[in-house]
Amino acid sequence: MTKQTVTANRDLRENRPLWADTSRISVITRQTPRERFYDVVIVGAGISGALMANALADGRRSILVVDRRGPVKGSSMASTAMIQHEIDVPMFKLAQTIGGPRAARVWQRSARAVEGLKALVQGLRIPCQLEARQTLYLAGEAYGARALKEESKARAQAGLEARYLDADELEQQFGIDRPAAIVSKMSASANPAQMTAGLLRDARRHGCEIVAGLEITDLHAGEPVVLATSSGQLLLASHVVFCTGYEFLKPLANRQHRIISTWAIASTPGLKLPPWLSEALVWEGADPYVYFRTTPDGRLIAGGEDEDSSEAYLSEAKLKTKGRTIAEKVGDLLHCAIGSPDYVWSAGFGSTPTGLPMMGEVPGLKNVYAVMGYGGNGFTFSKIGAEIIAALIGKKRDPDAELFSFR
């Protein structure tokens, strides 16, 4: 077995997200695995690992979830949890890269994933402030009125509801001064930490074992997969799934995957905001773009100012300036003062040139799977990833697996 560090260690968030101070985000864990062999080992206890465990925990498989930090302590905690069926790359633009029919299938699967995630959380009765939302997509410097009109047509042809608004309609209905916008449904918002913890607790009730503070330091693919841990223990597994966000497997580090830095804020509660905002997620066709929503207690959650950098989010100076810039941009759009945020935080996330994640069996590593490159759609793509990997492990065919395969 060749010695190597399997994942690139990074601090996934800077400062303290709002969600860290909310209730019901703890999960019972163990310090060491009970067994030496498992049917499935899932590496990562964020939203990806939680959904993966939920999809695989059928009461028959032995499943172990490990995380070098612990449940809900990584990038999922830093999410703004704008759970959108809309992905970073517009459908008409994605069609230019992968073809119209394939782009339509990606967007259709994304819409189904959001609906599936809402149904799952509601069915399990996880208290996580889950709310159905409409999305308001504003014209910006990257995608203006003409592009949004083309985008609304592409979505309509794919059977996805998308209502185009010109400047006058946008001003009249939302009081926003932009050349155009698209209004659509099928999205949602939630407390990401509570959702992740709730899913992990449900998986644990179905026999899933969760170990905190354990890092996978090496692996040897095969039948079985052999995993070396930071405690010096060797684990065996029929299948291993890496759900580690952008702390990806080193062999994939230079394959169409880059790390982006992003920033987010949470305002004081009870902010005076337009009434329509309580039912909407807002983002814009700009680069970088800002995005925002509200919480049930009247906070504004906003993020953006992304940089194509794997280290920028660690800067304390940028944390202050980026937070102030986000608040000012949103305040200008909504014609109101956001004030000094209660919380400002930053994080890194993985992205790909097409905006599509990569998920499936890792090339050259038998029985080793990974999900990575989510961009701004971590929760939506995590749901799709859980479905695709569960099908692969169960030797079933997912008709859309090739759309998200490693490239």
How many strands, which pairing sense, and closed or not: the largest β-sheet?
10 strands, mixed
According to CATH, the fold-level topology of the domain at 13-78 and 193-255 and 354-404 is: FAD/NAD(P)-binding domain
CATH architecture of the domain at 13-78 and 193-255 and 354-404: 3-Layer(bba) Sandwich
**Overall strand count:** 18
Task: Tell me the distance between the termini.
Answer: 26 Å
| Helix-strand string | EEHEEHHEHEHEHEEEEEEEEHEEEH
Strand content: 25-35%
* CATH superfamily (homologous) name of the domain at 13-78 and 193-255 and 354-404: FAD/NAD(P)-binding domain
Overview features:
Alpha-Beta Plaits, single chain, alpha+beta, FAD/NAD(P)-binding domain, 8 helices, disordered N terminus, 407 residues, 28% helix, 10-stranded mixed sheet
Which helices and strands occur, and which strands form pairs?
Layout: E1 13-15, E2 37-43, H1 47-56, E3 63-67, E4 82-83, H2 91-98, H3 100-124, E5 131-138, H4 145-157, E6 163-166, H5 167-174, E7 180-189, H6 192-205, E8 209-212, E9 216-220, E10 225-229, E11 234-242, E12 258-266, E13 280-284, E14 290-294, E15 300-307, H7 316-334, E16 343-351, E17 358-361, E18 368-372, H8 378-393
Parallel strand pairs: 2-3, 2-11, 3-8, 5-13, 11-18
Antiparallel strand pairs: 1-16, 4-7, 5-7, 6-7, 9-10, 10-11, 12-15, 12-16, 13-14, 14-15, 17-18
Helix pairs in contact: 1-6, 1-8, 2-3, 3-8
Description:
By secondary structure, the protein is of the alpha+beta class. Among the domains are: 180 residues, FAD/NAD(P)-binding domain (3-Layer(bba) Sandwich); 94 residues, Alpha-Beta Plaits (2-Layer Sandwich), CATH 3.30.70. The chain has eight helices and 18 strands. Strands 1, 4, 5, 6, 7, 12, 13, 14, 15 and 16 form a ten-stranded mixed sheet that branches. Strands 2, 3, 8, 9, 10, 11, 17 and 18 form an eight-stranded mixed sheet that branches. Strand 13 and strand 14 form a beta hairpin. Helix 1 packs parallel to helix 6 and helix 2 packs across helix 3. The protein is globular, with a radius of gyration of 21 Å. The two termini are 26 Å apart.
